Amino acid sequence: MEPKTQVEIQLGHMCNNRCVFCVSGQQTEFGRARPLPVEPLLDRITEAFGRGHRKLTILGGEPTLQPGFKEVVSHAVKLGFEEIVLFTNGVKTARGSFIDEVLDLGGKFTWRISIQGANELAHERTTRRPGSFARIVASLENLHARSQRITVNLCVVRSNFESVEEFPELLARYGVRQLHLDMVRPADAGERSAEEFAAMLPRYSDLAGPLRRMVAGFPDDFDVNIGNLPYCIVPELSHVIHHDGEETDTIAVDGESSLSRPWNKYLVKRRDKLKPESCAACVFEPHCSGVFEKYVELYGTSELVPITPARLREVDPGLRHLALHLTPVVRRLDGWTPPAPFTSAHAAVERGADARVTLAAGDQVLTVRLSSPGDGAGSFDLFSVHIEALPQDRALALEGLRVLWARLCEEGHRVLHPLGPDAIAGGATRSIAARLARLRHRSPFGSLEWTGVRVRAGGTRAELELRGPEGERAAVWLADEGGRARGGYRVDGDAPSPAVAEGLRSLMTALRPEAR
């Protein structure tokens, strides 16, 4: 399991690349980058470990150029950091002997390789260092041969964005486990003119095609993530877009040779961002930190079109972002005044993808969880309802389920299977409850909508209310008579419509025990 608390430390600005977006290469070119004394670095790492951090990322510039690099790594290993991430441009790691020297220090390492283009042309016009791509490839080969954990990082700029769709093929050869693409933060780019920023920063909407093709090229279990891209630019990739991250302390170089005190990485990196007022209507607004001010100076905000709940259903049919889909439902339920005898309702999206809804009648409480559609005590095509707590009073519990289901039906989502008395223990005989559970698991039945269920005769008979696509009515009954399972159906009119007939056949098939 990856350590939960982490710190990153910059060993200095010295770098042997001159990336078009990076302050370190520029500082080196200006002659301002200096080797840092080792003792302050060791002291800060010791302090970080003492504060409870167990994951350490070592950054540059290019950290392997620092004279004290191996001493810093050795010190971190001896302290007991559970994971040490070495962020490198792959120049020195092109020599297998250098990697072996680091591995001999002990510790668990992740090698984060800075690949600034998925092919030679894109990489080297970004790093402005001929031969740097060949060294990257040699580093990947060396690390893969030693069964090391490899991740890759790229800063998205004009000179490399079109190449990203080639990453799946490149990274598959070397067992790379993760790819992180990040939108360049202008404030981290050094001293740049307006012309340089215009040449550096791509228009976000131009990225959509290459990013789609890139993500489609990776297997489903590959860890690809895109940082700081507004979700609305390519919302169908929202499952791999993120803003901010795990809480991280950063220790950076101040000036030429001194170290900063630890600062909150993602809090600081939000400071030069903004959101237009229209973003308030977007379902991703709580999760999106906006766009960089310098970007807005270049391109404005016309690309930032809010994603509505309806649009979210179009771009996220698999409900990867169930919590976002549930948010409008929860907002309407929270604070709703239910009919007597219930006095209050509370709803909230829980951590993760579920939501929780509670109805209270004095000290009697009904609590349900809204989760992915399908199984459960009742389900719509957007979410299912799972019982977590029921009032002790059985009649009150049934009334609470009826009231809640009626309210949820007002949302207008298609019913897959409705709440019914079988949700309560003892609400139906074992035989009836088992058959209803089988139907709930297998629903829906073609275009036939299952709108209601009643349990009668002391739990020995269930009646299902069904509706066809043209409003046709049908009913199915299930009975437990003398230990024998019986059932049948009836329809309005002389004969069922083709849609109803197909749905009834599907339903009857689902009742067979082997169908489960």
What does it look like?
31% of the residues lie in helices and 24% in strands. By secondary structure, the chain is α/β, with parallel strands linked by helices. A hairpin with a 3-residue loop joins strand 18 and strand 19 (384-389). The radius of gyration is 30 Å and the shape is elongated.
What is the compact description of this entry?
With 516 residues, the chain is an alpha/beta fold. It has helices spanning 23-29, 38-50, 69-79, 96-103, 120-127, 132-145, 167-172, 194-200, 204-217, 265-268, 293-299, 309-315, 322-333, 394-409, 430-442, 498-510, and strands at 6-10, 55-59, 83-88, 109-114, 149-156, 178-183, 223-227, 241-242, 248-251, 253-254, 258-259, 263-264, 273-274, 291-292, 344-349, 355-361, 364-371, 378-380, 384-389, 415-417, 449-456, 461-467, 473-481, 484-491.
Task: Break the fold down into its secondary structure elements and pairings.
Layout: E1 6-10, H1 23-29, H2 38-50, E2 55-59, H3 69-79, E3 83-88, H4 96-103, E4 109-114, H5 120-127, H6 132-145, E5 149-156, H7 167-172, E6 178-183, H8 194-200, H9 204-217, E7 223-227, E8 241-242, E9 248-251, E10 253-254, E11 258-259, E12 263-264, H10 265-268, E13 273-274, E14 291-292, H11 293-299, H12 309-315, H13 322-333, E15 344-349, E16 355-361, E17 364-371, E18 378-380, E19 384-389, H14 394-409, E20 415-417, H15 430-442, E21 449-456, E22 461-467, E23 473-481, E24 484-491, H16 498-510
Parallel strand pairs: 1-2, 1-9, 2-3, 3-4, 4-5, 5-6, 6-7, 7-8
Antiparallel strand pairs: 9-12, 10-11, 13-14, 15-16, 16-17, 17-19, 18-19, 18-20, 21-22, 22-23, 23-24
